[in-house]
């Protein structure tokens, strides 16, 4: 589903934006760290302080599992602009082998997570159903 160029672009970029919507279609977008394996993109909840304990992104996924993630690169040289958008159904993994493997992938990709007890937190798994990309995806 993902092209080699898209896979490389996703691997080199560090921040994505997760878009969810509640049952009424009210959108919510947040920056996230991510890891991709196969046809899934994983996002963990980390230990950084949150303003509330019930996160809107998790509530939205329980009400409306359709979600999108955009990974983009901005550059003053507009010939370097590029982005990849992934859309599909999202689910929250609370535990289990896939949860643990996703946490390991995320910890390997982001050393900042090494000092956090992320195993106790849920993982969002976006099951990639549609990929759209545009622009310069080269490194």
How does this structure look, described?
The protein is an alpha+beta fold. The chain has one domain (4-135): Pnp Oxidase, Chain A (Roll). The chain has three helices and seven strands, in the order H-E-E-E-E-H-E-E-H-E. It has helices at 4-12, 56-63, 97-109; strands at 16-21, 27-32, 35-37, 40-44, 66-73, 82-93, 123-135. Strands 2-1-5-6-7-4-3 form a seven-stranded antiparallel beta sheet. The radius of gyration is 15 Å and the shape is globular. It starts with a helix and ends with a strand. The relative contact order is 0.26. The model has no long low-confidence stretch (mean pLDDT 95).
SSE arrangement:
Layout: H1 4-12, E1 16-21, E2 27-32, E3 35-37, E4 40-44, H2 56-63, E5 66-73, E6 82-93, H3 97-109, E7 123-135
Antiparallel strand pairs: 1-2, 1-5, 3-4, 4-7, 5-6, 6-7
Key attributes of the depicted protein:
single chain, 139 residues, alpha+beta, Pnp Oxidase, Chain A, 7-stranded antiparallel beta sheet, 3 helices, 7 strands, 38% strand, globular
């Amino acid at each position: 589903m993902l092209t080699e160029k898209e896979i490389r672009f996703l691997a080199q970029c560090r921040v994505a934006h997760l878009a969810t919507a509640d049952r009424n279609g009210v959108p919510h977008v947040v920056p996230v760290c991510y890891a991709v394996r196969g046809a899934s993109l994983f996002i963990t909840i980390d230990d950084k302080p949150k303003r509330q304990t019930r996160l809107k992104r998790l509530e939205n996924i329980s009400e409306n599992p359709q979600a999108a993630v955009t990974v983009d690169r901005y550059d003053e040289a507009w010939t370097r602009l590029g982005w990849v958008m992934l859309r599909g159904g999202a689910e929250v993994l609370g535990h289990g082998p896939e949860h643990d493997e996703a946490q390991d992938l995320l910890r390997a990709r982001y050393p900042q997570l090494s000092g956090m007890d992320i195993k106790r937190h849920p993982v969002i798994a976006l099951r990639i159903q549609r990929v759209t990309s545009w622009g310069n995806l080269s490194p």
